[in-house]
Amino acid sequence: MRILVLGGTGYLGRHVAERLRALPGAHVLAAGRDASAEFAVDLAADRPDRLANTLAAAAPDAVVNCAGATGGDTVTLAEVNARGPAVLCTALREAAPTARLVHLGSAAEYGPGIRDVPVPESAPAGPVTPYGATKLAGTVAVTSAALDAVVLRVGNPVGPGAPVASLPGRLAALLATAGQDPAAVLRLGDLSAHRDFVDVRDVARAVEYAVTVPAPLPPVLNISSGTALPVRELAHGLARLAGFRGRLDEGTAGSARSAQVSWQCSDVSAAARALGWRPAHSLDEALAALWAAATEQVP
C-alpha cells in the first residue's frame, strides 16, 4: 500500500508517518516543502495541474494531509488551511480519484462549546478565529469533493515533539531551561479555559485506522479524549514532572487563537463506531512523553 503523507515533517505529520511505516506492506512517501521530502509539494502555492502531476508520479493508494498552519496572518492561514485542501482535492480527482484522503481538521472549527456538553460532528460549526474559519473552509473543500475522504477533527494535541508555538511545547522548553530555581517565574497567561487534550500518538493511530478501514466512512470524525480539562491542569502537571520549584504566573494575556473559547470538548463516540478507535493515553502519559522528549534536547 502506497501512502503519501503531506506535511510529514511537521508535529503531527512526523508521528503519523512513523505510525504508518509500521504497517505491514506499507510504503510511506513524504511530500512537502522540506528538502528531505521525496515529492516537492507546497499546497499554499502549487497549481492543481502541477500537483496532479506529482500525485500521478507518486501513485498513492491513500493520501494523508497533515499540512496546516496554526499561526501567522490571515492570508497565510487561508493559503495553507483553505486553499491547500481545495487544490489537493482538485488534483486528486484528476490524478488519483480512487485514493482515500484522510485530512486533519481541527476542533477549533466548532467554536465555543457549552460547558459539560461534548460536541458531536452534527453540531453546527461556528469558528470565532481566522484559524478555525480557515480550517473549516478546508473541511468543506474535502467533504464536498466527491472523493473517498474523511476529515479527522483533532482536539488539542499533546505529546513528544510539541512545537514551541503551542502552550505545551513552550512550557516544556521553559521548564527545561528554568531547572529547579525557586526564584524562577514563568509567565504563561490565562490558564482558566478548558480544553480537550489528546495524545499525539492517539491521533496517529486514528489516522492509521482511517487509512486502512474499509469504505465508506463518515465525512467528519472527532479525534479527541472526549473530556475537557482545565489548561491549568496541563501546566501544573508538566511543572510537577519537571520538579519545578518556582512560580507559574497566570496573567490576563493568553493565546489570541483561543481567548474567545472558554470550553471545548468533543464527542468521540462516532470514531469508536466507524474506526474502532478510542483514546488510549491519558493526559499524564502525554505529558510524561512530552517532558522526556524535551529533556533529551537539553544539552
UniProtKB/TrEMBL annotation:
Transmembrane spans: none
**UniProt-listed Pfam families:** Epimerase
The domain of life is Bacteria
**The protein's name in its UniProt record:** NAD(P)-dependent oxidoreductase
The NAD-dependent epimerase/dehydratase domain sits at 3-222
Q: Which family does it belong to?
A: Belongs to the NAD(P)-dependent epimerase/dehydratase family.
